[in-house]
Design a protein that fits this description.
14 helices; 402 residues; rod-shaped; two-stranded antiparallel sheet
Length: 402
């Protein structure tokens, strides 16, 4: 670039000199030689030669063997334009590959996260539907309660059958043979099982460890399960003394066939029906607490936690109490409830509603019996009031007018 500027300056100077100093007109007699034009042509030729030298120099600089070529490298793999085009193309390809790789990475990441979220949800659903230990305990207790209810009904029915035959003075019972035999039988039973210290001092019997148990309410209402057969006997004997300790003597012969005897027989049936109802209600109370179903290890542990003596065989009432107390005061059940998933809590609520329905059913059954007793008492009061009213003379009916 510096040489080019110098060449242009020289040419400009030559032209200016020619214009200023070569203005003298040529003489006609002289040879026509335009020295100024020759000088200008020579200057332009020198200027052209110098420009060509500069161009050749530039060409050599830019040639394949020039310094620029040495900087750009050999043309073994192509010229600069080709190499640049291929380089830019390769960079574009790299960019496209990078974008594709990023897209594949994101797709793989999204797929992996979707699978992870799906597996996590599946695990949550699985955990919510896995049977909880509390549900197993509820099922075990429910089966025990159901079996216990059936067993207690059998016990109550068996006691009721024996008590009804005794109250009806059937053959083979003490009252069938007379009132004195009935009194003697009930006393001998007391002396044999429940002799008190005073009775032992009087020489009637030997003192018993269950002193007067046949006349104490604690024999009927215990901790939930009677103490074996002796406990059941004590409760039954208490009910016997409470309802009908002495059965009236059986009616025989003319006592049943005469006109007065027929009325007495009707009164006797009324008495026996009322006594049977009263006895039946208390027999249900007794049977509900009789040992009838085996208890599992969890129920025994719960009894121990409640401060009770664990028993191998429990009653229907005992199993029902344990199931109710488990949800009210058992620490283990409360801890499981805290860790239950929502679905398990809902199932536990459903179980509690089932227990509530069961209790309501039992209350309804007891309400029916209570209503029966109340109706019987109402009838007895009405009958007594009717008999206690002053007698009123009625006119003698005229049979002819009938």
């Amino acid at each position: 670039m510096k040489n080019t500027s110098h060449l242009l300056s020289t040419a400009a100077g030559v032209l200016i000199g020619a214009a200023v100093f070569g203005a003298t007109p040529a003489l006609s007699q002289m040879a026509v030689i335009d020295w100024s034009a020759i000088a200008v042509q020579q200057a332009l030729k020198g200027l052209q030669n110098q420009a060509n030298g500069i161009l050749n120099n530039i060409t050599s600089q830019l040639g394949l063997s020039g310094p620029l070529a040495s900087l750009l490298g050999s043309n073994t793999y192509g010229d600069v334009t080709t190499l640049l085009r291929e380089g830019f193309t390769q960079n574009a390809n790299y960019s496209k590959a990078q974008v594709s790789a990023q897209r594949q990475i994101m797709d793989a990441s999204n797929t992996a996260m979707a699978r992870f979220e799906r597996d996590k949800r599946n695990a949550q659903i699985r955990d919510e539907h896995v049977v909880n230990a509390a549900h197993c305990a509820h099922l075990d207790n429910g089966q025990t309660i159901t079996v216990g209810a059936g067993q207690s009904w059998k016990v109550a029915t068996a006691i009721q059958n024996v008590a009804d035959e005794r109250g009806e003075s059937k053959k083979g019972t003490p009252s069938y043979y007379g009132a004195s035999q009935a009194v003697e039988a009930i006393n001998m039973l007391h002396y044999a099982r429940y002799c008190s210290a005073e009775e032992a001092a009087a020489g009637l019997c030997s003192a018993s460890q269950r002193e007067n148990a046949d006349q104490r309410a604690s024999s009927l209402f215990g901790t939930g399960t009677y103490d074996g057969q002796d406990g059941v006997n004590a409760a039954n004997d208490y009910v016997t003394h409470l309802i009908q300790p002495i059965v009236p003597t059986a009616q025989r012969g003319a006592q049943m066939t005469s006109l007065v005897g027929k009325e007495a027989t009707a009164r006797r049936r009324q008495y026996e029906a009322r006594v049977s109802l009263a006895r039946g209600v208390l027999n249900d109370v007794l049977a509900a607490q009789s040992p009838s179903v085996p208890l599992n290890a969890a129920q025994k542990q719960q009894m121990q936690n409640e401060g009770l003596t664990p028993v191998d065989t429990g009653s229907w009432l005992q199993a029902l109490e344990l199931d109710v107390h488990r949800r009210y005061s058992d620490v283990n059940w409360a801890a499981q409830l805290q860790s239950m998933p929502p679905a398990a809590v809902e199932r536990e609520i459903a179980n509690e509603l089932a227990v509530t329905n069961y209790l309501l059913l039992q209350n309804y059954r007891m309400a029916i019996k209570s209503a029966s007793v109340n109706a019987t008492n109402l009838a007895a009061v009405a009958e007594r009031d009717f008999q206690n009213k002053p007698a009123v003379e009625l006119p003698t009916p005229n049979m002819a007018n009938q």
